[in-house]
Amino acid sequence: MLINELAHISPGLRERNKQDKLARIEAVARRLFATQGFDATTTRQIAKDAGIGAGTLFLYFPEKLDLVLHLFAKDIPEAAGRAFASAPEASFAAQVAHVFAGIYRQYDQDPALARVIVKELLFLEPQRRARLMSMTVPFLEGLGALARAARSRGELRADVPPEEVATLLFGVYYFALVAWLGGIVPRADAQRWLVERALLHVMDGLAPRPAAPDQRKRPGKPTRRQR
User: Fold this and answer.
1) Nearest-angstrom CA–CA distance, 19 and 21
2) CA trace torsion 176, 117, 107, 201 (10° rounding)
3) pLDDT in tens, 4-33
4) In degrees rounded to 5, what are phi and psi of residue 145?
5) What is the pTM of this model?
6) By the 8 A CB rule, do 98 and 83 touch?
7) Are 206 and 166 in contact (CB under 8 A)?
């Protein structure tokens, strides 16, 4: 009877133990990446500070880049989801600015770690890049959905595909993120200004164009010679 009960309990205990180790790895990696940088942090140090063996860490994350990608996946897609879910009933530009701000706030919780994540995930080999793109696609789809709704409201030109609008806006988002993390715009208010100005110019180009005036000459009164 006791053996049967333990058989039911053991999987739960193993899972809790696994999650506890993962939480320790995440906490240590966040601290070391933020304080030492990516290159100076070794997997041996992460394993030691997390209280596990180097072989155990390898089972979770074969390389440091996998751990960086994991930290990104744990924080940013969820922050983007919350930002889209709370988008206000407002203009398209205001909705986009709201979404961007929600993600920037997540990065702002630990800017030093954010610099490591953004830098190290910039150039990835195909397999890891595919994993990163699988997490980026929902963000682009969310921007595309906002653009599609804005187009139906008459805020955007009908001839511009929402997918292309999303790609354009991603460029604005990423530039402002890198400019902030890189110290080009060190303050949050400067970053907001940069995003707002960029969105203003983008909207100038995407807004519906006024109908061109009819340039054809209208018949006038006949002249004396025409009579």
Assistant:
1) 5
2) 10
3) 544 555 668 888 999 999 999 999 999 999
4) -65, -40
5) 0.85
6) yes
7) no
